Amino acid sequence: MAEVILKNIKKSYGDVQVIKGVDLHIKDKEFCIFVGPSGCGKSTLLRMIAGLEEITSGELHIGGTQVNDLSPADRGISMVFQSYALYPHMSVRENMGFSLKLAKQPAEEIKRKVDEAARILKLDPLLDRKPAELSGGQRQRVAIGRAIVRNPKVFLFDEPLSNLDAALRVQMRIEIARMHHDFDATMIYVTHDQVEAMTMADKIVVLQGGVIEQVGSPLDLYHHPVNKFVAGFMGSPNMNFLESTIKQVEDECVTVGLPGGGTVSVPVKREQASVGDKVTLGVRPEHLLEGGGGDGEVSGKVLVVERLGGGTLVYASLEDGQSISAQIDGNSSIKVDDTIKLGLRNETCHVFTADGLALPQIDRHPLADVGRGSGH
Amino acid sequence: MATPASTAAANSAVKTKNTRKVDTRPFLWPSVIVLFLWMIVPLAMTLYYSVINYNLLDPSFTGFAGLENYKFLLEDPSLWTSMWNTLVLVGSVLIISVVVGALLAVLYNARFPGRNIARLLVIAPFFVMPTVSALIWKNMMLHPVNGFVAWLQSALGMVPTDWFSQYPMLSIILIVSWQWVPFAFLILLTAIQSLDSEQQEAARIDGAGPVAMFFYIVLPHLQRSISVVIMIESIFLLAIFAEIYVTTSGGPGLATTNLSYLIYSVGLLQFDVGYASAGGVIAVILANIVAIFLIRTVSRNMQKA
Ligand SMILES: Nc1ncnc2c1ncn2[C@@H]1O[C@H](COP(=O)(O)OP(=O)(O)O)[C@@H](O)[C@H]1O
Ligand SMILES: [Mg+2]
Hints:
Largest sheet of chain A: 6 strands, mixed
Mean pLDDT of chain B: 84
Structural class of chain B: mainly alpha
Number of helices of chain B: 14
CATH superfamily of the largest domain in chain A: P-loop containing nucleotide triphosphate hydrolases
CATH architecture of the largest domain in chain A: 3-Layer(aba) Sandwich
Oligomer: heterodimer
Low-confidence stretches of chain B: 1-10, 12-16
Low-confidence stretches of chain A: none
Bound molecules: adenosine-5'-diphosphate, magnesium ion
Mean pLDDT of chain A: 91
Distance between the termini of chain A: 14 Å
Strand content of chain B: under 5%
Order of helices and strands of chain B: HHHHHHHHHHHHHH
CATH class of the largest domain in chain A: Alpha Beta
């Protein structure tokens, strides 16, 4: 059992507070991803869990014991660094066995464990090489191997894929997800790339400015973002935000105006909203219907067309000058300067009040609360 | 002596092969020629003087001497003593400066209040001229009557030691080390600062305490810089002179006479230019033997890293 529990964790450097009180419960065997823009404190948070940074205040529990005052080596964690941080003068074998050697384990035992990890990671032919003689992907594997050999309760990753090229990144992404499945270990993974977060996580923690914006499953964050920041950060291409005002309010439905004069009635709780409030209407490019229809319509002039084969990305300027992007069929014959009609379906729309908070949706998406793997 | 020139030539050959077909060697010739003359003229003159009879006290004693000077020199037991002294001096100072320099570098790499001033103080001895530092040690530190060490000893109820007559070589080693530790410290400190912090953090997670960290992570990282320190220091330490001249004058007896001091004493105290030149030639040969070994090991280390 290796739950990781953070209770009101704070971190200050001098007078500057960079982590402003984080409460989080990461379950045993969960793949938890911290995501957020650069400088939001993801690494700092991870390094506090690892024991590399002192925790200014708050409690950290790993596997049921409070570890605030334990050294990194005694916390039962392994960490994979962005720069791989391999020891350049040691061979791959020595790199992987270093922790066991320091723990004074017998040589046969070290050899057995290193061989085992090397087999899993297909590093067998490279064991006698030095890190300088390996490619980026191979170094990454060695770094992971070094983490595996310690047989930790919790794996920590700090942007492990950001130094790899795109193709290798996809491949390693799959391998790490696979590894999580095979090892049944708790993993905490930091990235600024929301695609990595969406594809791998059981639980995503969105951070901004040292506070948690939202915690949830990938589809929870995608379908039910609690505020404009999370809505804009998760999902690719980015969500469209249209300035609008509230036309009509009912208990379980808020009707907002659309550019061009139409309206759309969105099934959300009204909360404090009232007619005439300035709001932001959010809708994802992939939820817009080419040719109109749905529960509301906008039209605009096409500015740019990006054909990706499977889909087409269209950037258009609406009648009131706001811009919008839509992901439509790959076989669409739409051209620049054409007029495009886009339909909105009410259950895919989001309404954000002037302070950026989302009005909560009435219906939960059926997959939003379902975990990915077995055992949850 | 020929090594820098030949590596430069090798480098330029590699370049011309790899990039455009411009022969860059002609551009190197002016500096190579100047450096070559700079080296060869004094060497040729020394070689010439070493094979003639040339004593300033006896102008009538002239003419070609053949290998007489060398023969006298090689039969002179003071040559072997001074060679041994040179090796002891160079070796001890190298070990002391690298070990102490590395420890200080690790220590001063840690954060503590006033670190910059403390670093400056450690480096300071390097900027003191050798004659001055020798005088400081002779008159203020190790003097049996006025010295600080003597004062300490009597304060502790001990009999003050006359360092320069009882432990002459140790005293010289002490002075020279005091001057060269800062150099090793400076080079090794910059090397430690370039050590990847994530590597150290990975080692901490792997369970490395301060001692394991030093031997498994820091020391291997310093290997190259240590080679550089050893090479540069050896060049200067082989020619130590002022410290000996100011303090012990090579004595008592020959206890602190190294090769350069021996050459000085036969050349300028006994006025035998021919004899001193022969000593100079032997010193050059000895220095080159040391240099060949050093450059080989150092360049092997550099390629490895
Ligand atoms: N050692 C430090 N001293 C002062 N400020 C720091 C230090 N380390 C990080 N910070 C600050 O803390 C914030 C969070 O940094 P970090 O956790 O590295 O962000 P992220 O990994 O999300 O990009 C940044 O604003 C950074 O400037
Ligand atoms: Mg970071």
